């Protein structure tokens, strides 16, 4: 198991092999209860009811957020008069790639989607719906942020502004495709309602850049790993499109078990491969192949489960908060200890040596 390997592979070595994960139990299928989510119920033969019953998404520490940032600082960063080091040629090249829109034919639906949804039943159906909902919310969050950045940067840097606008186009496409997937289950997220109702989390621009790059790389390794697994094990394919770190996934291990993956092994594979990929860009990366790293993740999973259990208890709010305090302190302590682990210096990397690995 990759998670138990300690600093045994140089970061410069990458593998395209399909990971070997153990196959856990399958579900017993039964009728599922009503799903609590911010949705509008629809009928298979009618348009979504705009006045449908809307319920709030259950907020937790790991719920997908809507983000905002310091737009004035963003304008300063991309102002060519202030920041003379901006490489406009690279921005122009990037813009042309977005305009070419290589992914425009990747999102094609057919009758197999609805047919597959109708066959899903029991806990796996409910878990899959929740997964679609969370993924759609996350993509829509990116759409809102990039759209505003595109609007705000039009005068400061039209090229970068258009790049952000096209990024928002892609995120909107992803959100729309996922929401259409929900319609196969006779559900639809009310994205307009979400825009007005959700609270926005502030991130400084530097964290927006870091988090965006990292989340895209994490997403790539999650999706390609699931794709390769299902290609090698077609008996687990239950829906034509699959959407998807450690704490979050461990709350939804049934989803991964339902398609024949071991959640923790899957997550550690994604973390390790993402780390190796980001080492091409970042000067230092976490020592994720050190057993201490996984040990701390496992302890955080246990603490997080206890925090969730407190929230589900019948105690009064004051008692719940008192019980949460030591647990949150323990979680913060583990996070801090993980952050303070000595990093691996990745240094300068010649991207040409990875050229063949950059292709799907």
From TrEMBL:
Rubrerythrin diiron-binding domain location: 130-240
CDD domains (alphabetical): ACSF
Keyword list, A-Z: Chlorophyll biosynthesis, Iron, Metal-binding, NADP, Oxidoreductase, Photosynthesis
EC number, as in UniProt: 1.14.13.81
Pathway: Porphyrin-containing compound metabolism; chlorophyll biosynthesis
Pfam family, one: Rubrerythrin
Cofactor(s) the record lists: Fe cation
Gene Ontology molecular function, alphabetical: magnesium-protoporphyrin IX monomethyl ester (oxidative) cyclase activity; metal ion binding
GO cellular component: chloroplast thylakoid membrane
Domain of life: Eukaryota
Matching InterPro entries: AcsF, Ferritin-like_SF, Rr_diiron-bd_dom
GO biological process terms held by the UniProt record: chlorophyll biosynthetic process; photosynthesis
Catalytic activity: Mg-protoporphyrin IX 13-monomethyl ester + 3 NADPH + 3 O2 + 2 H(+) = 3,8-divinyl protochlorophyllide a + 3 NADP(+) + 5 H2O
Record-linked HAMAP family: AcsF
Family, similarity comment: Belongs to the AcsF family.
Protein name according to UniProt: magnesium-protoporphyrin IX monomethyl ester (oxidative) cyclase
Species this protein is from: Lupinus angustifolius (Narrow-leaved blue lupine)
Taxonomic lineage of the native organism: Eukaryota, Viridiplantae, Streptophyta, Embryophyta, Tracheophyta
């Amino acid at each position: 198991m990759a998670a138990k390997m300690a600093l045994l592979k140089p970061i410069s070595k990458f593998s395209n092999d399909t990971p070997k994960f153990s196959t856990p139990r399958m579900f017993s299928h039964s009728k599922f209860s009503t799903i609590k989510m911010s949705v509008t119920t629809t009928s298979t033969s009618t348009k979504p009811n705009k006045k449908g019953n809307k319920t709030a998404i259950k907020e937790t520490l790991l719920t997908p957020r809507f983000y905002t940032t310091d737009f004035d600082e963003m304008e300063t960063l991309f102002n060519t008069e202030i920041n003379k080091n901006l490489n406009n040629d690279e921005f122009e090249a990037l813009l042309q790639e977005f305009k070419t829109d290589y992914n425009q034919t990747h999102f094609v639906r057919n009758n197999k989607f609805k047919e597959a949804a109708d066959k899903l039943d029991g806990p796996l159906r409910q878990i899959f719906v929740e997964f679609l909902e969370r993924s759609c919310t996350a993509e829509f969050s990116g759409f809102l942020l990039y759209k505003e950045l595109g609007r705000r940067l039009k005068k400061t840097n039209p090229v970068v502004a258009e790049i952000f606008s096209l990024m928002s186009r892609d995120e909107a496409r992803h959100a729309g495709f996922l929401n259409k997937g929900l319609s196969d289950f006779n559900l639809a997220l009310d994205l307009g309602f979400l825009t007005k109702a959700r609270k926005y989390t502030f991130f400084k621009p530097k964290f927006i850049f870091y988090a965006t790059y990292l989340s895209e790389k994490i997403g790539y390794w999650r999706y390609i790993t699931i794709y390769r697994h299902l290609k090698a094990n077609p008996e687990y394919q239950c829906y034509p499109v699959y959407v998807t770190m450690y704490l979050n996934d461990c709350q939804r291990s049934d989803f991964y078990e339902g398609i024949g993956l071991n959640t923790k092994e899957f997550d550690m594979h994604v973390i390790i491969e993402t780390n190796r990929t980001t080492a091409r860009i970042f000067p230092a990366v976490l020592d994720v192949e050190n057993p201490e790293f996984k040990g701390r993740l496992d302890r955080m999973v246990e603490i997080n489960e206890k925090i969730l259990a407190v929230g589900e208890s019948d105690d009064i709010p004051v008692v719940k908060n008192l019980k949460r305090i030591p647990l949150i302190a323990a979680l913060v302590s583990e996070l801090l200890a993980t952050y303070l682990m000595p990093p691996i210096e990745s240094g300068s990397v010649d991207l040409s040596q990875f050229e063949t690995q950059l292709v799907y």
